[in-house]
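Run log, item B.
One chain of 154 residues. Sequence copied directly from the ordering sheet:
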Amino acid sequence: MRILFICTHNRCRSILAEAIANQLGGGQLIAASAGSAPQGEVHPLSLHYLDQHGFTTDGLRSQSWHDFEDFKPDAILTLCDSAAEETCPVWFGESTQVHWGIPEQEDLTSQKAAFDRTIALLTQRVRALSELDVTDGREALRQSLLAIAERYPA
């Protein structure tokens, strides 16, 4: 399954999700991340905490969703509330879009705690995602993705 994780700035949450999905997906998942207004660089703490948790950071970069016109994701998962409210580009029309909201890092008392909590949550969600049977169609996929977000709330 091809997954595109989206956050507005593509610096933290979507980057974390991309790295975790590509590593834990066991070949079942091909993940990328993008933003509607990317900042052009990955937040250094994203790389630091991914590394600390044993995830590969090679090749991670902040990029625009316009760079993914040919990616053809099966699912688009928005991770920040502002990205969920944006209209995705028309070429994502065939994709199932679901919001997997995760709070801003600053909402928690310490950055380390925020990153640890976000990585743990995404790890749970990605493990459940990698077990999905995606042969039942778009609506079944959408319902399954929503159920994962409910089972592992932010």
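Observations after the first pass:
- The chain is about 40% helix and 10% strand.
- The mean pLDDT is 91.
Flagged for discussion on Thursday.
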